[in-house]
Specification:
By secondary structure, the chain is α+β, with helices and mostly antiparallel strands. The protein has 4 domains: about 45 residues; about 60 residues, Profilin-like (3-Layer(aba) Sandwich); about 70 residues, Helix Hairpins, CATH 1.10.287; about 140 residues, Histidine kinase-like ATPase, C-terminal domain (Heat Shock Protein 90). It is built from 7 helices and 12 strands. The protein has a 5-stranded antiparallel sheet. Strands 7-9-10-12-11 form a 5-stranded mixed sheet, covered by helices on one side. A hairpin with a 5-residue loop joins strand 11 and strand 12. Helix 3 packs antiparallel against helix 4, helix 5 packs across helix 6 and helix 6 runs antiparallel to helix 7. The mean pLDDT is about 85.
Length: about 325
């Protein structure tokens, strides 16, 4: 066996060091690539899982970690599909490469909610169009009947008219919701709105002794008279309905007014029942009371926003809605 010369040994050692350096560089490149992949996966807006064939998790981002209870319900072999889990809607996408599965879950709850609202709005608008003409005829006939009925029956006809008024308000709100709000702005003396509110309250049906106090100040508001009346009607009628649900036989609704450099500010308080679920308060077709179509507060908010303001529920022990209208 021939001996290894010193030069050959030196060359072998140098080659060993070179291989080791290349191995370290390769490990560093692999680590960098792995970190980059993890950062990319973490950056994605949806939950991502990479799963081994034995079911173990090879990689997942933080959104996936928040949905650990969702993963066991997913179908790895299925094509893309939608599912509902714990009240949320998800779009599930799956992919299979070699010995790993890639699964993603995208929260589409808000998208589905908007789609459902659009469908409900279209259906409600269609029904409102169909109902509007016969309701108009019934309203006209009830007015004629009121003039001819004997005094003992006028209270009955009056209740019929109040019921028709409620239906007409629902129809008007539904059509406004489906078509959108367009403001025809003009200077309005607030006393004109107060007069319209008193007339509307007279048409509204309720059984208890309810005292409604409205602002006495007379000032000019720039806005759309019909829309502003509808907004205040909705808020006052909601307050009356809350008192109707209360155990007391009487109640109060108070609207106050003040202004600052930018806004007319109104606050509506009622002594009625508290709001059960604040989270759905301004959601269309979601109502916190037994009667109502869930459009009143949502439309009121949109009307205020169309006038450069907003409607909010103030935090505190008393139930107070605040309306801001841009001056």
């Amino acid at each position: 066996m021939s001996s290894v010369t010193a030069d050959e040994l030196k060359a072998l050692i140098e080659q060993t060091y070179k291989v080791e350096e290349e191995y370290v560089a390769l490990r560093q490149s692999y680590g960098y690539l792995q970190d980059t992949i993890e950062q990319v996966v973490e950056f994605l807006p949806n939950a991502i899982w990479i799963i081994e064939q034995d079911g173990s998790i090879f990689l997942q981002n933080s959104k996936a970690k928040e949905l650990t209870d969702l993963l066991p319900t997913l179908h790895w072999e299925s094509d893309d599909y939608e599912m509902v889990h714990q009240g949320y809607s998800y779009l599930i996408k799956t992919s299979h490469y070699k010995d790993k599965y890639l699964l993603s879950a995208t929260d589409i709850t808000e998208q589905k909610r908007k789609e459902n609202l659009a469908s409900m709005g279209q259906m409600a608008a269609h029904l409102s169009h169909e109902i509007r003409n016969p309701i108009g005829s019934i309203s006209l006939l009830s007015s004629t009947l009121m003039k001819r009925v004997i005094p003992e029956n006028r209270a009955i006809v009056s209740e019929i008219q109040k019921s028709i008024y409620r239906i007409e308000r629902i129809i008007k709100a539904t059509l406004l919701f489906s078509k959108g709000i367009k403001v025809s702005s003009e200077p309005i003396y607030f006393k004109e709105i107060v007069g319209a509110l008193h007339r509307a309250i007279g048409y509204y049906s309720y059984a208890k002794e309810i005292q409604v106090t409205l602002p006495q100040q007379n000032f000019i508001v720039e806005g759309d008279f019909d829309l502003l009346c509808m907004m205040f009607d909705n808020l006052i009628f909601n307050a009356i309905d809350a008192i109707e649900l209360d155990d007391n036989e009487s109640g109060t609704v108070e609207m106050s007014y003040h202004y600052d450099d930018q806004y007319h500010i109104f606050r509506i308080y009622d002594s009625g029942v508290a709001i059960d679920d604040v989270s759905i308060l301004f959601e269309a077709f979601q109502s916190t009371k037994e009667k109502g179509n869930g459009l009143g507060l949502q439309l009121s908010k949109r009307i205020a926003q169309a006038h450069g303001g907003d409607v909010t529920l103030l935090k505190g022990r008393r139930k107070i809605f605040e309306v801001r209208l841009h001056k």
